[in-house]
Amino acid sequence: MRTERKRKALPKPQAKLDLHGFTVEIAYGQVIGFLNRSKDRGLDIVEVITGKSGLIRYEFPFWAENLGYRAMVSSHGGSFLVWV
Description:
Layout: E1 16-18, H1 24-40, E2 45-49, H2 55-66, E3 70-73, E4 79-83
Parallel strand pairs: 1-2
Antiparallel strand pairs: 2-4, 3-4
Helix pairs in contact: 1-2
């Protein structure tokens, strides 16, 4: 008998930022501005699209933590959900 695991649905982000095509330095500035604007707007959860590999993807969790935000990898792995 096969049992199926139920996946918990992740919350739907209220805004998204796509970092494809940015350098690391520009992406960092974009992240700071996006997260601050999202917080000012009273949003609860946003998505930052980093892609599935690369330096931005590697660095992003550290950026979020240093800025005081909690981030987790989204279900498809190419982005992060951030609680603001």
